[in-house]
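Researcher: Good morning. I'm working through a list of sequences from a screen, and I'd like to move beyond sequence-only analysis. For each chain I'm collecting a predicted structure so we can compare shapes side by side. This is the next one on the list. No need for commentary yet; just the structure.
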Amino acid sequence: MLPSPDRPSVSLLAQSALSRVIGMVLVIALLWLAINWAVRLP
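Model: Good morning. Structure tokens for this chain:
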């Protein structure tokens, strides 16, 4: 998917928002895994 040349700012904004969402999802997934491991391990 190539960003449209007529709206570079919108694509940059979308990329930053997407990267932020991906980072939040990764942090939540890591926390969820850590909690699951802590609960399952004695």
